[in-house]
Amino acid sequence: MKEKEEVFSPTEEKREITYPKEQILSSQKYRDRKDLLSALLEKEKGYTLKQVEEIMKNYKKKKVN
Question: How far apart are CA 34 and CA 48, in angstroms?
Fold first, then answer.
């Protein structure tokens, strides 16, 4: 009998890495937007880089009163 081989399906979702707020704020990528992200991100939550970009994008679209 043949041994069962593991085959990874291309439909499997890729897991994105999440980072805590402190790590995002200390990254070189976001050093120019540290103040903005400090106000927008929650302390106890983890974020993917995609989520961080989306949060900043949505904030910048808000109407100023």
Answer: 16
| Average confidence (pLDDT) over 9-24 | 79
CA distance 27 to 24: 5
For Cα atoms 15, 60, 42, give the angle at the middle one, nearest 5 degrees: 50
% residues pLDDT > 70 (the chain): 78
Query: Span 2-18, mean pLDDT?
Result: 63
Whether 1 and 14 have beta carbons less than 8 Å apart is answered as no
- Domain edges within the chain: 19-61
- Asked whether the CA dihedral 20, 26, 28, 34 is positive or negative, the reply is positive
